[in-house]
């Protein structure tokens, strides 16, 4: 959806001099500094998949805001490219850029301005002004967006009646009202107190599931990144230090800097698979018919299921794909179509040892007892939640 290659920004120097400083071949940051500029973003590359919630995390000053501003060219890159759905943003005409900013990409900031003398509904409708819609239509769409963020029926209120959390919801509603493909959120919850912040994170995740938007989310808070990010890109001094899923990063910090960020996760040592597992909500027995298992699986909205032997041990996993093939081939038992695609741990395994293994299979992680009986499962979201909660009390790094 968004593809960023070699993105680089030098502030404080004319383009020509900035490029010459970058091209000296030596340490770019020193060369730029020697020439009197600031290398805010240095050779950053990543791509964001449609429907992904991609988090950029780093201390204040690490270049996060500059990166996202270059994505819709609020800041002009010194070098590198951004493409949006395969189209080079650098080559867009003024007209195309306007369309990109007005219709396809919406931004939400930490502090954004609400008009004090306009109602919440009018504030939420603000982004639709240039759409050539009737006022009625704009306000109707604002109402839908307000409902999406949990402010149904509050449209007639004025911003002064609202708390910080509610104002941020109005900001989110304003962004959603334009029905963008991509939401870019720059530390949108950073000014909120922890409880409200948690509630906003929950709501964002829920919205993400319902609406399937692609979201690029900036934060300086590891807990927040862990809780909401499908993938997290860690930045320092304008550069990408690590890019991966939360469990990847915790399980395998790229260097001391990231290690330092995640060191608080040591608090999770006491957390074991047994303490975060839940009972398997849905299993199949080896002798069941593939068609009935597939039907139950569809109902449970799963992509795979653990297949259990009569003695209670795990035989393997049946995926939707395998079951469909088995039905086509006339197989009468699920046991004929199981695959080995899962990970099992004991209930005493610490989270730190398995968190990077979650999310890699169609089924959640299995927890087994010493006789290899399935006693529980650990969905990925559970692990992330447990880690985030365990690290909660740690002071923020910024
Ligand atoms: N308009 C600007 N002019 C000069 N320097 C800037 C400008 N914007 C940002 N910077 C510098 O670029 C670096 C990265 O800033 P920024 O992208 O805002 O970081 P973050 O969002 O991670 O806090 C900082 O050193 C900042 O001082
Ligand atoms: Mg910033």
Summarize the structure.
By secondary structure, the protein is an alpha/beta fold. It contains 16 helices and 16 strands.
Question: Can you walk through the features of this model?
Answer:
The chain has 398 residues and is α/β, with parallel strands linked by helices. It folds into 2 domains: 190 residues, Rossmann fold (3-Layer(aba) Sandwich); 116 residues, CBS-domain. It has a 6-stranded mixed beta sheet, with helices on both faces. Strands 2-1-4-5 form a 4-stranded antiparallel beta sheet. Helix 8 links the parallel strand 7 and strand 8. It starts with a strand and ends in an 8-residue tail after the last helix. The protein binds adenosine-5'-diphosphate and magnesium ion. Pfam families: ABC_tran, CBS. Belongs to the ABC transporter superfamily.
List keywords for this structure.
398 residues, alpha/beta, Rossmann fold, 2 domains, 16 strands, disordered C terminus, binds magnesium ion
